């Protein structure tokens, strides 16, 4: 369950794309820089170099019959390495030949870099931005050209990017030519498995690795994925796809290329395959049945010249506007959502959107929705796992996407100060949680050298933030980080964004977070990372406790963070159906509840019922005061009753517990005793 859970939530987070100063098309062959979409592995403004070659070397030679053609370099190359020569293409085909130093061009980033190789997603968007720059530049200058003659080619990695640009802009190209390109990001290449290709894309199967590859990330990087080919056909793609592949190619496996071509044919796309065997070798154009193939410029002209030459009787021309001009979204479904390529601004911007079926009955957890919308009873934990995945997607629809693993920057823990509280060490620390800043926290260490369980202690709504659970102010009943450390736990009490010294601008969307709730979830997940780095901590025995804000913060975090084995929430939640929805919509929480769901609990795509049930079979204790005027205890009872059958399904009914103290919105002594004993038992505190 744990791995499937994390596969869902790690998606591609799209950030704002800064624009570079406007540049003009060069008057003669030359290079320009074009703004590109931000790369999550290295945040900040990014640009790509675009190499432009005109027929005869000058812009003035562009005329009504001149087309545009991307010629894309190989994995580890620059400019036109490993692909067709731009001058030959420009002059013999009457095209503006365009090369692109797309993401990770050159051997340092492509082959030796710590980050995984992009494998066509952002690289394809980069190439499309370069193409759109030239396309828009000619239009703006009112230079007539053959808008229907837009082509692309590339060798090896460039062949993969050529396939991807057609997939991401399916109504733009008239013809593409793939020369021994990677036909898919298979497991062998993604994870460097032995016995196959020598390519290593440096991805990881570990969901907590910066280089983690989710199933959705892998699917979008498959140019031959049947669902995506069907989408291209439905959108009206008429591109002539020419695939040239050596049958002895072991670098980019021929089997993947054959499968891709077969899938394209099944989808009704116009594809022609040339599988190069040794009897096809002529020593001049074709010199190898392996990955190298031969003289790639001449190969393009030989196998596809009849489609590319403007005077050929077989010349292909695209009809209708390009995707740049349509200004529409391209949506490509994956297992847990969809990748969206938006052309609203003319140039493409890509993002991932998790999707889930729409559940209307959040108190009834006895079914899940199938792809056709029909209900299927939940009879086994595996059945429930389907609905739990839908829940995680629904949470992200409200809170915004969980950041990708690439945002797991080094923690860079700094000790600000240290003091003794009795026999305890109380240490003030700061650590980085994402590329944008750091969090302050109090860490309590009991005496002794043995490994101990640890508890993440989340504060309520209070201006002093982390200081209250640390015992440095606020109400003594809420000093639970100190109390639990005195009982023998290692405890960590961090600030929630915007409390105490934690400055956070919720309105600034440049950081990519769409809610304070999601920012807090990510910060708490990094707190778990930190606890697991401490030699004093038993990394398999971790829990979380919180009151009020901290109570639902603990709940929301645990829906995404499977390493938290025990969860205690005091006065932290009700069912939304019995609560004041506007109170959840402030900038610190979930603004989309108001802007999208109109403060109507019936419109919400999830409720706390599903979140509590999603924790099964982990231990969960709700302490809900009967006189709470903030969270209606009746709503808590509804949640616990709905979640119980799911816990029973997991044979973990004894791990779901509730205690209802006769008190107002507070964490009274009897509730604290119950909570502390629950943590001690479930985390095996000795």
Short synopsis of the structure:
The chain has about 675 residues and is α/β, with parallel strands linked by helices.
Q: Which consecutive residue ranges, at least 5 long each, have pLDDT under 50?
A: 1-21
- CATH topology descriptor of the largest domain: Rossmann fold
> What is the makeup of the main sheet?
9 strands, mixed
**CATH second-level architecture of the largest domain:** 3-Layer(aba) Sandwich
**Residues in helix, %:** 25-40%
Q: Which class best fits the helix and strand makeup?
A: alpha/beta
- Lateral strand order in the biggest sheet: 14-15-16-18-17-19-20-21-22
Give Rg in angstroms. 29 Å
- Structural shape: elongated
Count of discrete alpha- or pi-helical segments spanning 4 or more residues: 19
Strand composition percent: 15-25%
Under CATH at level 1, the class of the largest domain stands as Alpha Beta
Write the layout of secondary structure elements.
Blueprint: H1 2-9, E1 30-36, E2 46-53, E3 67-72, H2 86-93, E4 95-101, H3 107-110, H4 121-140, E5 150-155, H5 157-168, E6 175-179, H6 187-191, H7 215-220, H8 226-235, E7 240-246, H9 254-266, E8 270-276, H10 296-308, H11 323-326, E9 329-334, E10 337-345, E11 347-354, E12 367-369, E13 375-377, H12 381-399, E14 414-421, E15 424-434, E16 437-445, E17 452-458, H13 480-486, E18 490-494, H14 516-533, E19 537-547, H15 549-560, E20 566-570, H16 592-595, H17 608-614, E21 619-623, H18 633-649, E22 656-659, H19 669-682
Parallel strand pairs: 3-4, 3-5, 5-6, 6-7, 7-8, 17-18, 17-19, 19-20, 20-21, 21-22
Antiparallel strand pairs: 1-2, 2-4, 9-10, 10-11, 12-13, 14-15, 15-16, 16-18
Helix pairs in contact: 1-12, 4-5, 14-15, 17-18
């Amino acid at each position: 369950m744990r791995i499937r859970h994390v596969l869902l939530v790690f998606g591609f987070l799209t950030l704002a794309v800064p624009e570079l100063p406007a540049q003009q098309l060069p008057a003669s062959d030359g290079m320009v820089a074009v703004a590109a979409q931000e790369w999550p592995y290295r945040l900040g403004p990014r640009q790509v170099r675009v190499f432009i070659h005109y027929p005869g070397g000058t812009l003035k030679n562009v005329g009504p019959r001149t087309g545009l053609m991307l010629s894309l370099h190989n994995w580890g190359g620059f400019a036109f390495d490993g692909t067709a020569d731009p001058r030959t293409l420009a002059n013999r085909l009457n095209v503006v030949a365009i090369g692109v130093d797309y993401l990770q061009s050159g051997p340092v980033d492509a082959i030796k870099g710590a980050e995984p190789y992009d494998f066509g997603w952002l690289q394809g968007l980069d190439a499309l931005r370069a193409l759109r720059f030239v396309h828009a530049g000619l239009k703006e200058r009112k230079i007539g050209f053959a808008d229907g003659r837009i082509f692309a080619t590339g060798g090896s990695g460039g062949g993969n990017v050529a396939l991807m640009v057609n997939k991401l802009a399916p109504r733009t190209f008239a013809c593409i030519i793939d020369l021994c390109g990677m036909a898919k990001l298979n497991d062998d290449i993604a994870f460097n498995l032995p016995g196959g290709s020598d390519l290593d894309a440096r991805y990881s199967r570990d969901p907590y690795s910066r280089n983690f590859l989710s199933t959705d990330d892998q699917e979008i990087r498959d140019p031959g994925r049947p669902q995506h080919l069907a989408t291209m056909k439905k959108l009206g793609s008429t591109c002539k796809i020419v695939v040239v592949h050596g049958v002895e190619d072991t670098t980019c496996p021929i089997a993947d290329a054959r499968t891709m071509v077969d899938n394209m044919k099944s989808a009704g796309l116009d594809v022609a395959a040339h599988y190069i065997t040794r009897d096809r070798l002529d020593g001049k154009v074709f010199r190898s049945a392996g990955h190298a193939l031969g003289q790639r410029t001449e190969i393009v002209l030989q196998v596809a010249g009849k489609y590319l030459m403007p005077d050929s009787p077989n010349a292909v021309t695209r009809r209708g506007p390009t995707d740049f001009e349509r200004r529409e979204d391209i949506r490509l479904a994956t297992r847990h959502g969809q990748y969206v390529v938006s052309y609203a601004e003319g140039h493409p911007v890509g993002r991932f959107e998790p999707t889930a079926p729409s559940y209307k009955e959040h108190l009834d957890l006895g079914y899940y929705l199938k792809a056709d919308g029909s209900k299927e009873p939940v009879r086994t934990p595996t059945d429930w796992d389907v609905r739990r995945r839908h829940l995680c997607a629904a949470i992200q629809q409200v809170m915004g996407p969980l950041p990708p693993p690439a945002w797991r920057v080094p923690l860079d823990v700094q000790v600000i100060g240290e003091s003794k509280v009795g026999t305890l060490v109380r240490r003030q620390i700061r650590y980085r949680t994402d590329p944008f800043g750091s969090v302050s926290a109090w860490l309590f260490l009991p005496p002794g050298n043995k490994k101990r369980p640890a508890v993440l202690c989340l504060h309520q709504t209070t201006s002093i933030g982390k200081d209250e659970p640390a015992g440095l102010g606020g109400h003594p009943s809420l000093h639970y980080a100190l109390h639990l450390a005195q009982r023998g736990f290692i405890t960590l009490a961090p600030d929630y964004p915007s409390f105490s010294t934690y400055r956070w601008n919720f309105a600034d969307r440049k950081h990519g977070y769409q809610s304070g709730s999601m920012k807090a979830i990510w910060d708490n997940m990094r707190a778990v990372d930190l606890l697991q780095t401490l030699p004093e901590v038993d990394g398999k025995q971790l829990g979380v406790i919180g009151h009020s804000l901290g109570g639902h913060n603990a709940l929301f975090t645990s829906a995404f963070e499977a390493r938290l084995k025990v969860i205690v929430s005091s006065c932290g939640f009700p069912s939304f159906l019995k609560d004041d929805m506007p109170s959840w919509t402030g900038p610190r929480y979930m603004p989309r509840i108001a802007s999208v769901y109109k403060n109507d609990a019936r419109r919400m795509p999830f409720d706390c019922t599903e979140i509590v049930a999603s924790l099964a079979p982990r231990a969960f204790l709700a302490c809900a005061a009967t006189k709470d005027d903030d969270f209606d205890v009746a709503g808590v009872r509804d949640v616990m009753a709905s979640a119980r059958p799911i816990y029973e399904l997991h044979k973990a009914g004894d791990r779901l517990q509730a205690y209802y103290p006769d008190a107002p919105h507070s964490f009274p002594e009897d509730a604290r005793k119950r909570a502390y004993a629950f943590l001690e038992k479930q985390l095996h505190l000795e």
